Amino acid sequence: MTNRYERQERERDEMRQAILDAAGLIVAEEGLKRLSIRKIAERIEYSPGIIYHYFAGKEAIIEQLLRQGYLEMVSGLDAVSAMESQPEAIFAQTMRRFIETSLADGVRYRDIMLNESPSVLSHTAVLFSGAASQREALALLIRLLRSFDRLKEKQDDELELTAQVIWSGAFGLILRLTVEKDLPAAQKERLIRHYLETTLIMIKHLE
Amino acid sequence: MTNRYERQERERDEMRQAILDAAGLIVAEEGLKRLSIRKIAERIEYSPGIIYHYFAGKEAIIEQLLRQGYLEMVSGLDAVSAMESQPEAIFAQTMRRFIETSLADGVRYRDIMLNESPSVLSHTAVLFSGAASQREALALLIRLLRSFDRLKEKQDDELELTAQVIWSGAFGLILRLTVEKDLPAAQKERLIRHYLETTLIMIKHLE
DNA sequence: GACCTATACTGAACATTGTTTAATACATTG
DNA sequence: CAATGTATTAAACAATGTTCAGTATAGGTC
Q1: Which part of the chain is the HTH tetR-type domain (chains A, B) (predicted)?
Q2: Which nucleotides in chain C have some atom under 7 angstroms from a protein Cβ?
Q3: How confident is the prediction for chain A on average, in pLDDT?
Q4: Stated in angstroms, how far is A49 CA from C12 C1'?
Q5: Could you write out the DSSP letters of every residue in B84-129?
Q6: Which residues of chain B have pLDDT under 70?
Q7: How far is Cα A36 from Cα A59, in angstroms, rounded to an integer?
Q8: Which domain, by its residues, includes B172?
């Protein structure tokens, strides 16, 4: 008796996910701006109207899509294994991997991190005071910072600020590299290396 | 005889500018996403179709608008007057003014700097090798860097890389602050100050 | 099995978009 | 004055997001 409702609920969820999957494919193929309700409907082989039985509107679909995408991206986050014992090497390799995966994802990183809807921002906001306790990326950065001897004694809130600034710097570089997409690979590499070098210099000389 | 053509040309330019002005007002009031050809037409008191006699399409209008906006923004760029004699203070104040004017401009900075059309990018691209010779912001940054004694002897191309990284960092911070627009003013201020501090530390210890 | 009710779904419609085009008014030229 | 080219409009087209009246369907009740 009760499991009938469960099955209905399950089917509803499956339909919602089918819509999201179709939307995800379209976005991957044509970009977020070209996503349309009718294209989704065609792909799931239903009429366009039905989508409004499962989502409040296009905006809601996009938000859910970006939220799922964000979780995927974050799930691959962790420090490079400690085969490299020097904090500098670990920091550089971890940051480099983060930058390169973001770049490999093309415009997805950009779509996610620039979305201003509250439901997406509740996952992606990173600058507020106390963010480190809720954002794995910041927590990871702080752990990396603490692996430098000079910074072991630093207060949490100061390291958080530093992590936020470092994070914003990487964010800016990733976005610029995404926008200026015709940049030669060698220059791209030079910039990433220089970003890592200068950031490390800064870290090593924090007062 | 020839000046008839000149007058025609002039009237054409005036119409083009009237369209751009109307578009600019709408964007300022409602944002870039809400700009529409029909709204422009209504504001200039013509029918929508006429706009296509003056511009190739909506995209072309936006590009021209952003290009004009970019020139406006850049025109206000110069180093803080040297009443402060220490390079550090000059650097910090110049960067701070740049960050704060960008933030004050709301989403305009964002719309301009994230636009990917070649005609806009030809003004805004900043990461390519040799960019300092064409981008006042980068040239200014390099001049500021050279005012530090340690960096007087540095090669141009290395300082350019450093300027590009510093610029990208500011860019990332500005964008994050624009996206996370509900951040308390005190935290905003803390982040800007910390960005300036850490960047200065980096500059002072460049090898 | 007949009936009922809630849910799934469709087709058509509506309003709004960017854009094109046939027709027209107008100004300039010869 | 006739011809030519330019400026302008109204209407249409295609695509968009969204709504809604109606229809089928599936599950439960008598």
Answers
A1: 13-73
A2: 7-13, 16-22, 28-29
A3: 93
A4: 11
A5: S-SHHHHHHHHHHHHHHHHHHTTHHHHHHHH---HHHHHHH---ST
A6: 1-7, 82
A7: 11
A8: 62-206
Quick one: B202 and B129 in the same domain? yes
**Do B68 and B51 fall into the same domain?**
no
Is A170 an interface residue toward B (CB < 8 Å)?
Answer: yes
- pLDDT, tens digit, 9 for 90 and up, residues A134-171: 999 999 999 999 999 999 989 999 999 999 999 999 99
Whole-model pTM: value is 0.93
A202, A204, A205, best to mutate vs chain B, most B CBs in 10 Å: A202
Number of structural domains found in chain A: 2
Residues in B touching A191 (Cβ below 8 Å): 127, 161, 164-165, 168
**Does any strand C atom come closer than 7 Å to the Cβ of A46?**
yes
The spacing between the Cα labelled CA in B45 and the C1' in C27, in angstroms, equals 21
Amino acid (1-letter code) at residue A110: R
State whether the beta carbon of B59 lies below 7 angstroms from any atom of strand C.
yes
How does pLDDT run across B160-205, given as a tens digit for each residue?
Answer: 999 999 999 999 999 999 999 999 999 999 999 999 999 999 999 9
Nearest to B22 by CA among B37, B34, B40, B35: B40
- The residue of chain A with its CA nearest to that of B129 is A187
Q: Taking the mean position of all CA atoms in its chain, how far away is CA A133?
A: 17
Q: Tell me, what amino acid is at A23?
A: A
